[in-house]
Amino acid sequence: MRQSGTIALDQQDGKIATATVRIGFLAAGLYLLTVGGVFGQHPQALWSIFPIVSSFLMYGIGFLLLGMGLLRRNPIRCQWMILASILLSFSLQFVSRLMLTAPGEMGTDSALFSGYAVDLLLRGENPYTHDMSAAYHVYRVTNFFMTPLLDGGASTRLPYPALHFLILVPLKLVGVHDVRIVYALAVAATAVLLYRYAPHSLRGMALIPLYMNAAYLDHALGWVSDGMWMLLLVAMVICWNRPTGRAVLFGLACAYKQSPWGLAPFLVLRLLLDDQDADQRPPFLRMLYFAGVAGGVFLLINGPFMLLDFPAWWAGIFEPLRASMIPFGTGFSTLTQSGIALFPKGFYSLATLLVLVSLLLLYGLYFRRLKHTLWFLPGVVLWFSYRSLQSYFIYWVPLLIAAVIALIGETESENAKEADRQWWPALAVGGGSALILAGLMIVFTRTATPLIVELVDLSANADLYAIDKMEISITNPTDQTVEPRISVQQVGWQPYPWQIESGAERLEPGESSVYWISTDLPYRTFALADGAQVVVSDASGDYRLRGSLVLDRDLSLLDPGTIYNAAYLPGPYRNGVPFGWAFDDDLPTAWLMTGADAESGFRTARMGFAAQAGVDDWQSVGLRQTILYPAGDIFVWVYPPADDDLAYGIAFDDGEHSLWVLFGGDALEGNQTVVVQDAPRDEWSLQRINLEALYGELGWLLPAYEPFNIGELELITQTVDLRLFVAGRDFEESRGVEGRFGPIWIEGAADAIDQRADDLVENEWAYYLALSGAAANRRNVEQAGALYAAAVHLAGDKNTPLIDIEAISEIVEPGDILLVGQPEMAYLRLMQSKGSLPGVELLNHQQVYDDQLQALTEQGIPQEAAERFAARDLAEVIVVRLDQGAVYSLSDDELLREYFDLDPVGDLYRVSAR
């Protein structure tokens, strides 16, 4: 009879098992909800019903699995639904990825080269003797996922053992070129193996690490081939107690790719030290048997190619070791990739070897404790390599799942056979290895002399605002000759080689040269808002000859509240006008140059024109852009010219007010308001402008709210036109005029958000007025009217000044046409005075168009021109009608000036036909 304590323990184990299955249902349900969301936003959802059906299916099954996790009935019997739903999800995602694949698309060079290797093999050719770059021509695919070399080229050998492409032969024989089906099936098969191998109560949990990390399936669907060796090694862990089976599987994995080779030294130790191994032959014979079977499988697959041309086969599979590939990845070599430390490939090779030896020593010393850790130790070693891609680490995790399951079958007594070993050997090995690694770092750092790379100029693609051309300076401070090769690296991507348009072919010790480099491929360009790194290497493959230049992010391109392209980086069109700016080049002799200024050390804009003597009107040239009304101070580097008769500064125009801020000189007469700030002439100085303070001193209202789009923002906001200019008039003699400006930026106020909120609450009527205009533009007339009414109400509460309606009504005659400079403002003010001005009537859009067209044609305007003006923007054309007259907005005053004389009447204009 069992004791009550034993019964309680068994019940407790049963509850834990049930809870484990429930967690598995919940995790799988959450995963399916995530996949359902991805399908719901699928790019093909507009053209195909498949993503929508898949989304509904994933959500439905996901909800079901979540419910299964909370059923009162024990759900263990139904946990097969977890595996089935995951496999269904994998299948649907594979089909959806096929829908997005362009004809001939193939992602990584490993998949591309393997596919082409099969094509060659089926034509009786040895793939190892061919240049695999021909695959890009055959398949017509991008070389985005190429493997760059230091000389600016790319690896073009078949770099893998023969099984990597032989496994694709059946696909090719049936006419299937998309090799991803093999990689995806490998991931799915791994899930099935782990599920089948796990204890019944743990099967739902066993799959969580595999499918909750999207990388496994995403990599497979992105032509990453590592899933196959992962499957073979997982099967090897599961078959570990079958001596022949495990050796065959390891031989297959090694015949597929080099990554499993890192297991070999750890397997040797385990086979020699594990007295609990299923193969009870003497340790050395056990190890020889394993090596013989695994080696035989490897030779059986690769032997024919070794016999055909051994040097070619050898050069191919050891390409990652012998070729001058660039440092790349997410491991230890990021020190070099980011320019922190100039370590050559040899340093990382020594570091990798040091870590391997240290781990082997620790594994041997603490074998019984560390017996199962061998399945991820190769990933630790590869982290120190000069190339350490993410796939080098994550594909060992499914092996650990299988190893954890294997640990369940081991008894405590088996794990306890080893007497406790002191920890000082581990500290000695770890500490000694760390000291050696630190010493290597110091030695290589002191012997390194990086090339000096400096930025001279940049050029951007005007269509994409992406940098596709730059000028850099390279100095060789070493005692060796350098043949520069230049690459550009975006954050998160490998450096891609750019074309060298000009510059010295070689740099002798101590020499410098300026290089113009460019790229025609969009994916190799970079956005200034993201920044990049310029990497200079040596074509000879000497990893010690390296230099880099970090191009900082230009955050002004991401912040709509500052000045766009504040450094005047030029586009390739319109004579190098900085992108984001407009150049006033109305004068036939106007000119503009941007670039680095040797005197100041920053980029400047130099502009000028040939002034003509005897001209009364202003002659000027300027750079301008529309900015959001600045919440903070504007800072600008200025270099005022010495000429006293020139106006040099910044002009601001908000549509109602025009303000010139001059740096030096005297206030000038004109239609604009002028403010003068002291600034030394013929030298650089940093000037500060507080536009809001200037508006306050001048008694001006802030700019009106209006719809404005910038970047991805659609705002109802306040804007102002900013213009850097140099101007003059009444020149006594013809001469050249020039002005220089340095960087310009806005430093936002600390309380900018609070300030904007206060202004908006104070002037909410103006915001509603702008909203009504936006609604009218969408022809939502009723909504626009309601917003206008709200604006009228709010403006009345604020006692907003009105047009003198009585004065206007005295001079308005039936049939007169009035033009309004600010249509929404005039509309609001007239609406407020509706009760005091008889005959005011709102018009709908058709009435607006018909009345305006009739009025214009009656004034003698040609029919075509009248129709053009009448239809230009019905939301802003006619706002109200006064008796038989009408009030018009000045939406196209240049067109009207061709036919009317303007007579100012308050804030309006009365016009009569010429």
Brief account:
This protein is of the alpha+beta class.
Would you write up a description of this structure?
This protein is of the alpha+beta class and 914 residues long. It is 42% helix and 19% strand. It has 34 helices and 29 strands. The strands form 6 sheets. Strands 12, 15, 17, 18, 19, 21 and 22 form a 7-stranded mixed sheet that branches. A hairpin with a 6-residue loop joins strand 5 and strand 6. The longest helix has 37 residues, at 4-40.
Relevant terms:
914 residues; alpha+beta; 6-stranded mixed β-sheet; 29 strands; disordered N terminus; disordered C terminus
Main sheet: strands, sense, barrel:
7 strands, mixed
Mean pLDDT over all positions: 79
Q: How many DSSP-defined strands?
A: 29
Task: Report the principal-axis shape.
Answer: globular
Rounded radius of gyration (Å): 38 Å
Quickly give the structural class. alpha+beta
How many helices? The count is 34
- List low-pLDDT spans: 1-11, 412-419, 799-845, 872-914
